[in-house]
């Protein structure tokens, strides 16, 4: 059965941030993720995780000056020290929260003439960030983000991300594959899944309906089919539910209830078959 994590930056926004952990647990989530947890004290978040039996599976490193519209610093010349300081802050949180992976955002490059310098900077910064995380036993995530929602974002395509992993060549560097962004940028989602998961390059996944980023049972992506493909590929990582509820978080969880029911029903015949095989073996 696939593992889904509630993104607490987008879900359960009906209540204050720290109260969202309890609501996610009540709805059957065992994993949670969020974008930037730094407005809260790390130990306060850790208490919520412990009290509600949850695992924090992902956080982002600080993105730079968010008020100025910055979306990461990793590819920006002259900002490497600031970027790595943010990675160190994220590591401090991750070690307190038990988070195994951190997403480091690339940044915005609007001038195509600056692309070569940004590429050189990005590879160097990722290499240094991956080394810092490796020392803490953590994985580094990079996420291609579609240029419609985030114009100028440096990392936008799945093939580009795979190429970055090959060039940096660090064991703890992985792709954070958001299927919403993949669909909006290039489509061909199931082939992209096969190429990246098949090569062991995906460390985390996220979902949302496209093109409106609502629940995954809305829009042009057939997630029922996508989920069967993920199961067939043997994907056993977390899937972050990073979507904006159309009418309220709990009102929109029907897609998850249907998946759980179908997965439980599918598991029953298999379990019955295993019991029969055991019975036959004992009596032969």
TrEMBL record:
**Which catalytic residues are annotated?**
143, 242
Q: Which GO terms describe its molecular function?
A: hydroxypyruvate isomerase activity
Q: rRNA processing: is it a keyword of this entry?
A: no
Assigned keywords, A-Z: Isomerase, Pyruvate
- One of the protein's GO biological processes: glyoxylate metabolic process
Origin: domain of life: Bacteria
Q: Which PANTHER family match?
A: HYDROXYPYRUVATE ISOMERASE, ISOMERASE
Q: Which family does it belong to?
A: Belongs to the hyi family.
What is the official name of this protein in its record? Answer: Hydroxypyruvate isomerase
């Amino acid at each position: 059965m696939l593992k889904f994590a509630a993104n607490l930056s987008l879900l359960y926004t009906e209540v204050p941030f720290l109260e969202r952990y309890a609501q996610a647990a009540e709805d059957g989530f065992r994993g949670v993720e969020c974008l930037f947890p730094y407005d809260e004290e790390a130990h306060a978040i850790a208490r919520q995780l412990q009290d509600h039996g949850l695992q924090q599976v992902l956080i982002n490193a600080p993105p730079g000056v968010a008020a100025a519209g910055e979306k990461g610093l990793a590819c920006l010349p002259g900002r490497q020290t600031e970027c790595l300081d943010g990675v160190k802050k994220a590591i401090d949180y991750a070690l307190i929260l038990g988070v195994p992976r951190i997403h480091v955002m690339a940044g915005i490059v609007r001038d195509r003439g600056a692309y070569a310098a940004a590429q050189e900077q990005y590879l160097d910064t990722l290499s240094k960030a991956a080394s810092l995380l490796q020392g803490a036993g953590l994985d580094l995530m990079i996420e291609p983000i579609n240029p419609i929602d985030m114009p100028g974002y440096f990392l936008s395509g799945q093939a580009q991300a795979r190429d970055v992993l090959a060039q940096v060549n660090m064991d703890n560097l992985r792709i954070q594959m958001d299927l919403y962004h993949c669909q909006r940028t290039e489509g061909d989602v199931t082939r992209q899944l096969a190429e990246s998961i098949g090569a062991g390059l995906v460390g985390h996944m996220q979902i949302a309906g496209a093109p409106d980023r609502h629940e995954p049972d809305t829009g042009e992506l057939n997630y029922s089919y996508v989920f069967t493909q993920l199961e067939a590929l043997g994907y056993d990582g977390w899937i972050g539910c990073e979507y904006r509820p159309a009418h309220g978080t709990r009102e929109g969880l029907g897609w998850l209830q249907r998946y759980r029911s179908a997965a439980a029903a599918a598991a029953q015949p298999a379990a019955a078959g295993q019991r029969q095989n055991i019975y036959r073996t004992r009596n032969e």
